[in-house]
Amino acid sequence: MSESTATIRTRKFLTNRLLNRKQMVVDVLHPGRATVPKSEIREKLSKMYKTTADVVFCFGFRTAFGGGKTTGFALVYDTLDYAKKIEPKYRLARHGLIEIKKTARKQMKERKNRMKKARGTAKAKLAAAKKKVNGDIVLVDIMKTSQDSWRILGINNKFYLFVILNDLWKGAG
Asked: What is stated as this protein's family in its record (predicted)?
């Protein structure tokens, strides 16, 4: 073997018909070479199983002490649709199939503290609505507390707490 080659062998092969995929343990032999990139492993596995590289997901690779051999796990899906449906979001993001939106730390904390104020099924009823006020997007969370009162929790991310009677809300008063 020359230094540029890597041999890929699969073992513990299983066809998982419920998840529409083939799953296997992958052994990569790469003597005299650093760890083989997952992209290269994906390409070689896609050629072995006569499919495209976008439906091959490799993960969990560990190099043996002393180098030369790396072992990991691979999943080869029947179609890209099944892969998008079954694979975890972080693995899809690694492949560039989806983009995970980062939520600001402050927004996560504010949401957590808003959820603390509600109890039980009321947490599920907290609904976020966006309104435009003077060209600015204002976040308003409205929660019905009882038949005759409403709470508005959060305007412009400053927590003002208003209790408005139902008839005032409708514009009767």
From this structure: Belongs to the eukaryotic ribosomal protein eS24 family.
Task: Give the total residue count for the chain.
Answer: 173
| Cβ neighbours of residue 147 closer than 8 Å, sequence gap 6 or more | 166
What residue numbers bound the domain in which 121 lies? Answer: 105-170
96 half-sphere exposure, CB direction, 13 A CA radius: 3
Q: Which amino acid is at 131?
A: K
Please check whether residue 100 lies inside any domain of the structure: no
SS3 126: coil
Q: Name the residue among 6, 11, 12 with its Cα closest to residue 35.
A: 6
> CA 125, CA 9: separation in Å to the nearest integer?
52
Q: What are phi and psi of 15, to 5 degrees?
A: -95, 115
Q: What is the pTM of this model?
A: 0.61
In this structure, what CATH number is given to the domain that contains residue 30? 3.30.70.3370
Cβ pair 25, 45 in contact under 8 A: no
